[in-house]
Amino acid sequence: MMKYLRLYKAFMIASLKADLEYRMNFVSRIVTDIFWYVAQIVTFEALFLHTDKLGSWNLAQTRVFLGLLFVVDAFYMIMLSENLDKMSDRVRKGEMDLLLAKPVNSQFMMSLQRANTAIFGNLVMGLAWLIWSLSQLPDFSWPRLFWLIVLVPCGLIALYGIRFMISATAVIFTRSENLQYMWYQLYRLGMRPDSIYAPWLKFLVVTLLPVGLIASVPSRFLLGPPDLGAFALAVFVAGAFLWMSQRFWKYALTFYTSASS
Amino acid sequence: MLTNLEYRLNFLTDAVLQPAVTSMIEVTLWFALFAGAGVAEINGFGLNAYLAYAIWSAFMARLTSTWMYEFRMAEEIDSGSINSLLTRPFSFFEYYMSQFMGYKTITTVVSLLVPLLTCWIFDLTIIWDRLLPALALVFYYLLVVQTLSFIVATLAFYLNRIHALTVAKNMGLWLLSGELVPLDLFPEGIKNALTWLPFANAVYIPVGYMTGRFGPDLFLRGWITATYGLIFFGLLAVLSWKRGVARYAGTGA
After folding, report:
1. d(CA B44, CA A210)
2. For residue A258, with 0-12 CB atoms within 10 Å meaning exposed, 13-18 middle and 19 or more buried, which class applies?
3. pLDDT of residue B49
4. Distance, in angstroms, between B52 CA and closest chain A CA?
5. C-alpha–C-alpha distance, residues A157 and A214, integer Å
6. At A178, is the pLDDT very low, low, confident or very high (cuts 50, 70, 90)?
7. What is the predicted pLDDT for the residue at A40?
8. What stretches of A49-86 show up as alpha helix (H) in DSSP?
9. What angle do CA A68, B165, A14 make, to 5 degrees?
10. Where are the beta strands (DSSP E) in B10-51?
11. Residue whose C-alpha is closest to residue B133's, from B229, B196, B205
């Protein structure tokens, strides 16, 4: 475990140096995410111009949901996004050979080798939005934030699990960019509060397609009394998706034919 | 087109699976939004109108997405593999534009079934006479958006990494095209300003026209904005390409 933590620290430092090398890219990554934040905020602000409630949440509560979405997404973007986005490319170019030959877990290498350090700025913005939105709630109890210590990593792990499996299809099918693009469509289900969904869909987005764990479930713990059943489910789903991603990776590797050689 | 069909799963995902999933998600979202809001109409339009908009906007947005070709063009420049194209008797722009238009034509024919079937199943409002003119506008707009992608790709001559610019551009288009929310949900002034930009031709103008959200006036505006968009981005593309090639060392390949 310590070996992997040290390795990840080394990846972070190397990524920061590489990111600073391309300063224009560094800045544009931050700008990109600002666009994304603005798009999300504008969407909900526009919808709330025409209604008082979406599902069971009002505008102030939906802003909290958005804050959590921004924070979890920032963590995802920093740690995982670039690695998983480029997996298809790396497979096609045969870059995986070198990784598979290394004396470390290949899934770890494929998932965490590159960190996107420019997104730290976005994490700060996301946190600022979350704190501001929480401060707008008249009856918010700040100790509720402790729930996030477990729930945010759960959301992140579940998100990682499903995204990794989709990316790993590149090993089987060689070219699967469109499958990756489809992931972003599914991800949109997590970008809306699950309180607007019918019960069956709500269940689906916290279990089989766990995009609801990203922000909806943690938001419920901030906005209302804790639901221990939901808490246990979140932990279980995150663990299950992590396990499934490992199994799927091993299965996908049986199809790998080393494109470079 | 043949190159793309070589990877059949990728093609089927793009042409069938992706629009089907997107349509399903959009329908679910709008059903949920209306049920959650507990109202019969939002801004003068009922659930049926929003479902029709959502279904066709998912189709049009997928049709006008250029990210795949933009990445490929940028990669050619970045890696130096563009050298082999520079020596051919047609331009890099023409090469990719023809690939792009061919691919979009075939995927449109295949994936058009998804919104048509959805409209039939849910009995959604659509003015059939306006379908072909709306598709014609979208195909005209494809020239604009592919030219814009070409400009972004040519930035690879000047910058080492342009991936983030592609994503930033897509995010901007996502909002400005009306894919995220119909532009008529914005205050009137903002909506009016956005319809004077060519980007509304990706989704809002063609979809709004064929679903009866507005009449021919705004549709005509779409052709005008697409034309000046094409001229503007076309000139920018020529400039960016000429300057880029002039400084290109061609050592990558």
Report:
1. 35
2. exposed
3. 87
4. 18
5. 9
6. low
7. 86
8. 59-76, 82-85
9. 70
10. 41-42, 45-46
11. B205
Q: Do A55 and B161 touch (CB under 8 A)?
A: no
Q: How far apart are the first and last CA of chain A?
A: 33
Q: Give the closest of A39, A54, A196 to B171, CB-based.
A: A39
What pLDDT score was predicted for residue A147?
93
Gap between the Cα atoms of A52 and B54, Å rounded: 22
Q: Report ipTM (2 d.p.).
A: 0.71
pLDDT in tens, B147-169: 999 999 998 888 877 777 888 88
CA B167 to each of CA A36, A74, A85, A173, A208: distance values in angstroms, whole numbers, following the listed order: 10, 15, 12, 25, 28
* Amino acid, res. A187: Y
Whether residue A174 lies within 8 A of chain B, CB to CB, comes out as: yes
Report chain B residues touching chain A, CB-CB < 8 A.
7, 9-11, 13-14, 17-18, 21-22, 25, 28-29, 31-33, 35-39, 42-43, 65, 67-68, 159-165, 167-168, 171-172, 174-175, 180-181, 185-187
Tell me which residue has tokens 């997928």.
B62
With a CB cutoff of 8 Å and minimum separation 6, the contacts of A42 are B175, B180, B181
State how far residue B121 is from chain A, nearest Cα, in angstroms: 20
Nearest to A77 by CA among A185, A156, A194: A156
Write down the pTM of the prediction: 0.79
Q: Backbone phi, then psi, for A54, in 5-degree steps?
A: -115, 115
The answer to which of A75-84, A123-132, A197-206, A245-254 has the lowest mean pLDDT is A197-206
